[in-house]
Design a protein that fits this description.
The complex is a heterodimer of chains A (20) and B (240).
Chain A (H helix, E strand, L loop, with lengths): L5 H13 L2
Chain B lengths: L14 E4 L7 E10 L2 E10 L9 E4 L7 E2 L14 E9 L12 E7 L4 E7 L14 H10 L5 E6 L6 H9 L4 E8 L2 E9 L5 E9 L2 E10 L5 H12 L2
Antiparallel strand pairs in B: 1-2, 2-3, 3-6, 4-7, 5-6, 7-8, 9-13, 10-11, 11-12, 12-13
The chains are: A mainly alpha (20), B mainly beta (240).
Chain lengths: 20, 240
């Protein structure tokens, strides 16, 4: 599967929204 | 109205928009729907007068999203006293635009052989959510970052006992698309997008906690005045 870095970026976004 | 995932976006039952006593016996009930990419005003006309009604026509005042009849009101035969007719009026979204207060207010004029009558009604914003409203993931992340925090609005959707998969499907059948889903500390975070007929994008984060029937909806949009109406659309879709 092509890793375009976006999966990781969404994880970081969700993480930052939960623990700002 | 279509409610299930395969039957298109949610349509409320018809309600009375113009009572007969205010229109010399013409009663109009209606609702709005989106079917196969077209917005419709579904109407029920009842003749509660003692004379036959004919020569019907309809016109809209300018409105926030340029809604306008895409065809004449097709009532093929005169309406006898106590008779009712169902009409589905296709609408276009390229009419003249004027910002209304509230934003989703629509002023309508209906004429028949007796007189011209006026009423106004509110349309649910989800009839304007287009089928190609799924934003590219990279674009979503960039846009989310780019829209300032002042443009973020947060709402609570109370008493919504659905899980995130059921919610995702319900929202998708009304053209609210889930782009990514993450689970952080036991709560589901859904990242979603929708696009209005006038090209305005709305980005959403929907938080669902397994033990909490109240969802948290955060909306980011460059035109933040639509957020309140988008929230109401979420409420309507998720609870019907």
């Amino acid at each position: 599967e092509l890793d375009d870095g976006l999966d990781e970026a969404f994880s970081r976004l969700a993480e930052s929204r939960t623990n700002p | 109205g279509g409610v299930g995932p395969m039957s298109g976006s949610y349509a409320a039952p018809k309600s009375v928009w113009m009572p007969a006593m205010k229109a010399k016996g013409l009663e109009i009930s209606g609702t709005f729907a989106r079917r196969m990419g077209t917005v419709y005003m579904d109407l029920l006309l009842t003749n509660k007068a003692l004379q036959v009604m004919s020569d019907f026509a309809i016109q809209f005042n300018r409105n926030s999203f340029g809604l306008a009849p895409a065809a004449p009101l097709q009532i093929h035969a005169p309406l006898a006293p106590n008779q009712t007719v169902d009409v589905s009026l296709p609408l276009s979204t390229v009419g003249s635009v004027m910002k209304m207060d509230p934003l989703n207010n629509l002023q309508v004029a209906v004429k028949n052989n007796i007189d011209v009558f006026y009423f106004s009604t509110l349309y649910p914003l989800h009839i304007l959510f287009v089928e190609d409203g799924k934003m590219d993931r990279q674009m979503f992340l960039a846009t989310w970052k780019d829209i300032p925090n002042e443009n973020e609005a947060q709402f609570h959707i109370k008493d919504c006992p659905l899980n995130s998969d059921v919610s995702t499907n319900k929202l998708q059948s009304s053209n609210i698309f889930t782009i990514a889903k993450r689970n952080v500390e036991g709560q589901d975070m859904l990242y979603q997008s929708l696009k209005l007929t006038n090209g305005i994008w709305v980005l959403a984060e929907l938080r669902i906690q397994p033990s909490n029937p109240s969802y948290t909806l955060s909306l980011k949009c460059r035109a933040p005045e639509v957020s309140q109406h988008v929230y109401q659309a979420y409420e309507t879709i998720l609870k019907n």
